[in-house]
Design brief:
By secondary structure, this protein is of the alpha+beta class. The strands form 2 sheets. The chain has an 8-stranded antiparallel beta barrel with strand order 1-2-3-4-5-7-8-9. A 5-stranded mixed sheet has the order 10-11-14-12-13. α7 links the parallel β12 and β13. Its main location: membrane.
Amino acid sequence: MNKILINILIFALLPIWLAAQNNPGQLSEEQIYRKGNKYNTWSVSVGAGPLIYYVDVIDYTAFPNNNWKFAPTIMISKQFNRPWGIDLQWLMADMYGQKNGRYFEGDLYDVSLNGTLNINQLAIFGPISDKWNIYAKLGIGLTYFRSRQHSLSDNRVLIVSDVYEGTAGYPTPHGWLPSDYLVMGYERRGEGAPDKKTSRQNEVVIPFGVGVKYRISKSFDVGTEVLMRQMSADNLDVNLTGADNDSYMLASINLTYKLGKKNKRHAAWTYKDFNINYKRQRDNDPMAQKLDSLKKQIEYMSMLDSVKSDTSTIITESVEYKESVSASIFFDFDKSEITEEAHMSLAKVAYVMNQDKSLRVKIVGYCDERGSYEYNVKLSQRRCNATLRTLVNDYNIDPNRFEIDYKGEAELLSDTQKLAPRGLHLVNRRVDLFVIIE
């Protein structure tokens, strides 16, 4: 029966999964999870839903015919990174079930500590369409309950002999007298029985299940989860000789408030930093190592050329560029931050421009072809703007001495599709600087 419920939920969520498409190239900086950055990681959820009991004294297989019981729940959650988290959950509910002329009733609450795993973070490395998280949950906890068995005909509390003596398949439970009342959390014999309350019966419970969350905003999520809670005992309904341990299932609808700064994302709603894998692969790529060596040689030659007087020019689109003070800086995948090496190149350009106040420079930005065309145009623009800010703010160059042209993925220096597998993305992720001769 548990497998049927899980399969129903999976098939209900499958259309959402198939309809979702993520393009890593279209992610903004705040969407990417980077180690060292700070994200909101705490949240509080409140919810409610039906609590369905699977015990011996019930007259249904999957869902109750009547007497549905509903449970409120509260969760405090901590997210450790994109996929993994933990939550402390509390719930409470009344209990009821009937079968063969008798019924049990009572109430319970349970407290559990649960590990959570965002499944989509492992499958597609981020939220689905930046709106959905599908997660699995497994935990351990304690359930505390009181319950009594009654006769359906006259509502009296049953004793052991009413159920277990003379009934085939029901041996007298160990440690119970025939005159003991069938109660848990009440006196079962002696003064005050069966109405006098005692300490609640407590048992270990194992919650497990799946859920889905929809991101409303940076502060709020809404979602639903289905959690089965498997008990370590068979006494929730005070039926003491059943074949299987008791269990109960909560299907709740939850509203989540994400604690923290309003301008920061919650870690569960971020995407994998693909640049981590890219750097790891580059370290083992001999072609990339050769490119790094070549790039350093080009930068060194550019430095030597920048102090020479060279009148040779290149004419492109009616604008002339002096090669002697040209420079190129390179960027990591999907980033626009100026690296330490790029700062060294820009310092050389700034030196030449400070020596000759008449020089004007054109800044041309490029991207590799990963990501959409529109996104890459904006990314190349951000790279140009970062280059301009460095020259203006760090080296005090007049911004009016610059022109900007951002080309996105156009004019690839290394066509990685035609040259696969030897094409290199890095040479396409750059900004070129040329002195304009007017």
